[in-house]
Write a structure and sequence with these properties.
The protein is an alpha+beta fold and 288 residues long. It has 2 domains: 159 residues, Fructose-1,6-Bisphosphatase, subunit A, domain 1 (Fructose-1,6-Bisphosphatase, Chain A, domain 1); 117 residues, D-Maltodextrin-Binding Protein, domain 2 (3-Layer(aba) Sandwich), CATH 3.40.190. Helices cover 27% and strands 27% of the residues. The strands form 3 sheets. It has a 7-stranded mixed beta sheet with strand order 3-4-5-6-7-8-9. A 5-stranded mixed beta sheet has the order 11-10-12-14-13, sandwiched between helices. The chain has a two-stranded antiparallel sheet with strand order 1-2. It is globular, with a radius of gyration of 18 Å. The relative contact order is 0.14. It binds 6-O-phosphono-alpha-D-fructofuranose. The site of 6-O-phosphono-alpha-D-fructofuranose (P6P) has 10 residues, from loops.
Length: 288
């Protein structure tokens, strides 16, 4: 069987131009909400359908789970695919789609597991994201290395074959309303904001790409009125932690690496922090 990870990555790269082209004219909210209760844009549903169709057409992909769907779909059976070659993909089709209205960045986030979801981060074989910015780029983490490519007409052109987090951190960005931040987290942010520059764009992939480019920390903390935070462990926490840790950084839910967490439910939320290890260590030391 061809390299199953390459097949997934190349498939997502090939559909990225269609996802991007489909954003225009799909900026209105559909009637429904996703399983997390977020309102769904027509673009969310369009991207999800495109990605599901392309990925389930791959021989090795036997499960497709999406932030836009209540449960995974696909054969997921003991079908013809040898057990070792079965791949289960988790996708956030348009992370940050609320930025569409303001014409700001958003992206497609994916994680490739070797067992059905929900499962823990140790089952991750690869992860990555497509960033729909001024240009379309793709970051992929697999086998200990992070690569960055430019996507041109659906094919990848590598621009960094070994992307690593800058040792000197520069930027930070934290989500949630400030009055809802816990006191210990607010104290931590007071230190960070005296040391780094604020970069927060409302789409995790864009904000994390700032951290991957300039060094620093991104997070969406547990809040007073929402202690579990906003971001989903399977669809956002695991893949972004895998990317940043593979690039030489660290991740945390405030206590431990996000990759060590096993969700009970597919759409389970988690506090999420990724960035330079020194800032993650200081955060964990601060949060009681
Ligand atoms: P807020 C986008 O909706 C998202 O899921 C992440 O991409 C982003 O980091 C976060 O939520 C933004 O949340 O509360 O700042 O709008």
């Amino acid at each position: 069987m061809t390299d199953t990870i390459d097949a997934v990555v190349d498939s997502i790269a090939s559909v990225a131009p269609d996802v991007r082209a489909g954003l225009t004219g799909r900026r209105t909210y559909d009637a429904g909400a996703n399983p997390s209760g977020d309102r769904q844009l027509e673009a969310d549903i369009y991207a999800d359908e495109l990605l599901k169709e392309r990925l389930l057409a791959l021989e090795s992909v036997v499960g497709y789970a999406s932030e836009e769907r209540g449960s995974a779909v696909g054969p997921e059976s003991d079908g013809p695919v040898p057990e070792d070659d079965r791949r289960y993909v988790a996708v956030d089709p348009l992370d940050g789609s609320s930025n569409l209205k303001s014409n700001n960045t958003m992206g497609t986030l994916f994680a490739v597991y070797d067992e059905p979801l929900p499962t823990d981060g140790s089952a991750l074989l690869a992860s990555g994201f497509v960033l729909y910015g001024p240009i379309t780029t793709m970051v992929v983490a697999r086998e200990g290395t992070v690569t960055e490519s430019v996507i041109e007409e659906g094919t990848r052109r590598t621009v960094d074959a070994d992307l690593t987090l800058p040792e000197e951190p520069t930027v930070y960005g934290f989500g949630g309303r400030v009055p809802q931040w816990r006191e210990d987290f607010s104290e931590y942010v007071s230190e960070v904001e005296s040391e780094l520059k604020l970069r927060y764009g409302g789409a995790m992939i864009g904000d994390v790409n700032q951290v991957l480019t300039y060094g620093g920390i991104f997070g969406y903390p547990g809040l007073r009125d929402r202690p579990e935070g906003k971001l989903r462990l399977c669809f956002e926490g695991h893949p972004i932690a895998h990317i940043v840790e593979t690039a030489g950084g660290a991740s945390s839910n405030g206590e431990q690496s996000l990759l060590s967490l096993t969700p009970d439910r597919l759409h389970e939320r988690t506090p999420l922090f990724v960035g330079n290890e020194a800032y993650i260590d200081r955060l964990e030391a601060t949060l009681e």
